[in-house]
Specification:
Strand content of chain A: over 45%
Radius of gyration of chain A: 14 Å
Order of helices and strands of chain B: EEEEEEEEEEE
Structural class of chain B: mainly beta
Low-confidence stretches of chain A: none
Helix content of chain B: under 10%
Oligomer: heterodimer
Distance between the termini of chain A: 37 Å
Helix content of chain A: under 10%
Structural class of chain A: mainly beta
Distance between the termini of chain B: 41 Å
Chain lengths: 117, 114
């Protein structure tokens, strides 16, 4: 089974520039998550999609971050403009679907390491 | 919202010894507690999980215990091996009511000395 794919793997930009990350979840997974992992910390949820609808974006800094999941498959996360404190690994994860029956494991992608200079 | 604290932040053990990592959570509605292992530069991978209706779960050399009253859960690794060296994250979720959202601890860096 193919895993969660992300690109690019690394990105270096200067502050105030824009950047976009791409995620392709495991085939058939309805739920997609974007996490921010700052060095030395655990992943923090930025946004969660179920198909192409947003379930939770309460921790997304909406003045500079945006995300979309058109057609309910691939997703892009954008930062515009970037700040120094955005330097982190951005992880994408997917799961079958969330619901009443049981908890579904989240599978993580390899992440995109962003450095903002 | 949920807050998960994890201790210790670093742990060094001799190969063959046991390692214990502890986490506490704040939301009494949390009912699912996974543990992830993240090797350097790699993605987090689920190694074991426990649900709130179970007090202990074991899988070969790893086990997790849950104390709902005290709101804490622990990861136990026995007979540690060098390949166990990694960062371990605990997490908690209230399940479907929050979209299966995971709140992670800050991680424990485990080093197993050969």
């Amino acid at each position: 089974e193919a895993g969660v794919a992300q690109s690019p793997r690394y990105k270096i930009i200067e502050k105030r520039q824009s950047v976009a990350f791409w995620c392709n979840p495991i085939s058939g997974h309805a739920t997609l998550y974007w996490y921010q992992q700052i060095l030395g910390q655990g992943p923090k949820l930025l946004i969660q999609f179920q198909n192409n609808g947003v379930v939770d974006d309460s921790q997304l800094p909406k003045d500079r971050f945006s995300a979309e999941r058109l057609k309910g498959v691939d997703s892009t996360l954008k930062i515009q403009p970037a700040k120094l404190e955005d330097s982190a690994v951005y992880l994408c994860a997917s799961s079958l679907i969330f619901g009443l029956l049981s908890y579904n494991e989240q599978f993580f992608g390899p992440g995109t390491r962003l450095t903002v200079l | 919202g949920e807050n998960v604290e994890q201790h210790p932040s670093t742990l060094s053990v001799q190969e063959g010894d046991s390692a214990v990592i502890k986490c506490t959570y704040s939301d009494s509605a949390s009912n699912y507690f996974p543990w992830y292992k993240q090797e350097l530069g790699k993605r987090p991978q689920l190694i074991i999980d426990i649900r709130s209706n179970v007090g202990e779960k074991k899988d070969q050399r790893i086990a997790v215990t849950l104390n709902k009253t005290a709101k804490h859960f622990s990861l136990h690794i026995t007979e540690t091996q060098p390949e166990d060296s990694a960062v371990y994250f605990c997490a908690a979720s209230t399940g479907w009511s929050s979209g299966d959202k995971l709140t992670f601890g800050t991680g424990t860096r485990l080093a197993v000395r050969p």
